Amino acid sequence: MDSAGHTFSNYRVDTEDNNKLPRKICNIVKFCLFLSVWLYSSAYLITTTPKVPSTFLVPVLPYRKYVIRSRDKTHQSDIDINFSGPLNKRLITNPEQATDLDPHIKVKIKSFNAMANETELESDTLFLFLLADQDAMSYKISKQFTLKTKKKQSEGIHQSTSHGEYYELNIILTNYHNRAFALFVVVNYNPVSTHVGVAGGILLLIFFYVLIIWDLADRALVALLTSMGGIGLLCMMNARPQLTEFVQLIHLDCLMYVFFLMLIVRIVDETVVFDFIAAITYEASRGKPWLLVLILCACAAIFSAILDNVTMVLLMGPITLRLCQKLALCTTIVLMSITMFANIGNVLSPLNKDSILKLDIAPFLEAQHITYSNYVLHIFPGVILSLAVAYGVLYGFLKKYLYSRSTVIGSITSLQIRADKLKKVGVHLSQYQNNRITQLRRIEIEQNGEREEVDFTSTLSDLKANCIVRNIPLLVGSCISLAVLFVLCLPTIDNNLHHLTPNWIALFATVLLLILGNLQELDVLLARIDWRSLIFFAALMVLFKSIRYLGIDYWTIKTIHKIVSNTRKDRQLAVSILVLTAVAAIESAIMPNMMMKTLMVNEAISMSVDCNLPFAPLLWSIAYGSSFGENSNLICSLANVLASGLAHQEGYRYTYKRFFVIGFPITVATLMMSTIYLLIAHLVCNWHGPSA
Question: Which residue ranges does the record assign to the Citrate transporter-like domain (predicted)?
Fold first, then answer.
């Protein structure tokens, strides 16, 4: 990173005269590589039909047996089955807790040879435990069965299951309960091979990150291309998802929330709200730059704990840009700082709690006396300690780089090059982009030469001078809509309006603002929406989900269980805390997804029961790791992606490498601090007793 007055080589963009031949060769190689991935993915997408699993609605009668017969050919020994019904997930996950009196059904798979009139292959027996109140709720359980030879003289598994028209697969369900009920069963006779899937997923991830880290192409294009590659890999393994699954992969509810929030921020940006907050913030800092950074970071962490990190980054981004431009601070460093602190505070967010305190494990959480209040009580000390350590690391590493003229010059260069490219293809610049280039040139002139000490009084007067109300109806509408957004998202209100999701709340606030602001034309407003980030994140979710379909999640869970099980009894709790925190952080840093967090929580329940460990510290470890790990990767948090998109729109180079250089030390420091806190709290102080 360049300090004040240094050259701005980080922002220099190669022209046609600079390294012309190597650039041409690189472009040709990149073109051929991208085209190969597209051809490979398109070929499999065209030639492969969507995989339609076999579905059955099974009427299970009291003390009766039901057999699902199929002659579908299998190409391996594994069969995946999803069960939906009044299932007790806690007892199914931990059968050691069950008794003979608990209602259950037995499930077994047999491969029957009709010619020889005998069973040659069979699976282990699975016990599906049922809820006492079978009308209360329906849960979904996914299990993988492995067929094993019953006789030594039998042929190999693949020959027995794949060839011959005399083989029949029988799925036998035996009800040991005095009530009848229905069970919805989905059978996948040829699931993805874990070994091949994990290898393919890792190669796809490496390809993706090489393109992202070295900035070899636009991020949105890279995400679209690699997501196609992931789907092509699934098609190659005969596991092409259906169209409805594609749509579910995109997380439309999350994207709609961000879209509506962007509209609100763009409208509010035309008022004096952000200018007023910027003036108040600067006045509170008394003109001291690092105190200003501390105030911004603290506000980001506090309000992320109340709402969420995405909302805070979108709302605080314009404020940060105003202050950094006025005070000649390095915009990218300050913007990255508030994003990272927002990620740390997000672990306490009530809008984020459902990813940890999930509804389907509510009975187990209740038995462990774990509520959201207890969750906050135990997580809060670690968050405070981590915030203090993070600010210390931030100050120690970046105190020489807070002032940087080169970011302004680089911003002008970046915007001008983008403008030249658009003009070549006949696209006219928007008025906002023209104004932005003019504004930055004026700032460059003001900052020309050696940096002078900023006068607090005159700077504060300039900031307050911008707080002149020009559109009163728009200002009133902005304040009212922001108030509606905050109030409906507050935890105390959320309990009463639990049926309202954040995207609905953002929709209400957006439409209200459009009405109160009396906005007639939306073309200019929509032109300033960060479509690039929305497309990038949507493609990213498809990519990560397709990779997880290949079996990486289950392989990771098995590895965790093996490590903890092979540890000495007196060290299992410490090892569990260390392993779960580290794995959750690595997972969230490489490819975060809600599904993996769910699997890790279920694995924590299994470890708690199998190894007789307290469940609370295991849950806290997952919460810390999954939130703090997001600070080491620019693309693995929606808040990070949106901050990068905001900087890109303003012309700043918000690169993966720079984010990693700042974020990785903060991630390591906060993870170490939270782990030390957990070890002291639960090994030394034993703070996981009944009161927890």
Answer: 209-625
